[in-house]
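Quick review question:
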């Protein structure tokens, strides 16, 4: 008989037994609940035109929220109701989000991109929810303040993503490795399917929006050219794989090995090169997972997890992946 599958709650209990804060374990379980609902709505997204979902008017003539705003609200309501955070920040909300009265007693703030890659919904490509958790700096008993959020990624207590793909997966780190869970849609439970994920030291996949190559600096262009050149180095020529959904692109590369690049670019002469992805909602959580799986993450010159944010919404360049590919990338930038 097959061994009993380990559910997310069993796994969290196991972590608590070896020192994980039970409040953090509870918070992670609280994040999973709304994401299971988001997964169900994402599955129904193709029915929008005929049933009147997301961003349209439904059969009752009511405005229906776009799926990304709907997802945002689901997560906020769930964490408020559970009282498991003392503050939240979301890619969808300009301002920091206040906790419930119970949440003021929590030690944790959560940051999230509720539905990343949402432009891919219309074409049935995987999208995801990305989250990051920090322990507050100040004492309990009040709402978190901005400083509680503006910590370097190395201080993350936990981070992960939900991938809404051919199955729904949760990939998670509490700073002690990376584990992957697959949602069993029948029971609604996340079951440990990818324990102890280690990314290959070298991979032959590169992922970037090459249409932006004209905006990159020469060192980056030359590096990407070298990946396509059979004589460009070990593992060449690489395969290009990019769907434009960070969760999907990151997840594939995490399992198969390779490098993902969203480099800084400038679209006008004289403009300061800038990245697109958000440090706190996208780069930090993925960087923690990449490092915990044996890879690394950089903004082109600095380790992502060492960047000290000045705003919750700030953007960054993001290059991350397998350790050997990243070492080669870094050498190409000198
Ligand atoms: P979003 O947060 O507005 O969805 O944008 C983030 C997405 C990422 O999922 C993806 O890596 C990137 O944007 C793709 O950008 P581009 O279309 O410029 O290649
Ligand atoms: Mg996003």
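Suggested answer, residue by residue:
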């Amino acid at each position: 008989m097959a061994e009993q599958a380990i559910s997310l709650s069993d796994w969290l209990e196991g972590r608590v037994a070896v020192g994980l804060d039970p409040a953090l374990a509870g918070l992670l379980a609280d994040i999973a609940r709304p994401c299971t609902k988001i997964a169900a709505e994402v599955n129904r997204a193709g029915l929008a035109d005929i049933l009147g979902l997301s961003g349209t008017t439904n059969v009752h003539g009511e405005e229906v929220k776009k799926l990304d705003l709907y997802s945002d609200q689901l997560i906020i309501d769930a964490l408020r109701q559970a009282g498991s955070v003392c503050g939240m920040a979301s890619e969808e909300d300009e301002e920091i989000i206040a906790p419930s009265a119970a949440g003021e007693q929590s030690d944790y703030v959560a940051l999230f991109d509720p539905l990343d890659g949402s432009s891919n919904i219309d074409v049935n490509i995987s999208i995801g929810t990305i989250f990051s958790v920090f322990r507050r700096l100040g004492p309990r008993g009040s709402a978190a303040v901005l400083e509680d959020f503006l910590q370097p990624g190395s201080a993350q207590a936990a981070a992960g993503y939900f991938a809404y793909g051919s199955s729904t997966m949760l990939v998670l780190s509490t700073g002690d490795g990376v584990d992957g869970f697959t949602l069993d849609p029948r029971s609604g439970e996340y079951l440990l399917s990818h324990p102890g994920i280690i990314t290959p030291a070298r991979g032959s996949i590169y992922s970037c929006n090459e249409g932006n190559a004209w905006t990159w600096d020469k060192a980056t262009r030359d590096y990407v050219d070298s990946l396509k050149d059979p004589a460009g180095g070990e593992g060449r020529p690489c395969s290009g794989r990019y769907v434009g959904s960070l969760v999907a692109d990151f997840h594939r590369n995490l399992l198969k090995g390779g490098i993902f690049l969203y480099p800084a670019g400038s679209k006008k002469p004289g403009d300061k090169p800038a990245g697109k992805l958000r440090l706190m909602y996208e780069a930090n959580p993925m960087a923690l997972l990449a490092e915990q799986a044996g890879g690394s993450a950089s903004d082109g010159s600095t380790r992502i997890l060492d960047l000290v944010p000045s705003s919750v919404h700030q953007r960054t360049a993001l290059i991350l992946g397998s350790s050997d590919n990243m070492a080669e990338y870094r050498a190409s930038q000198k």
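Why it works: The longest strand covers residues 108-116. The chain has two domains: 8-194, 205-332.
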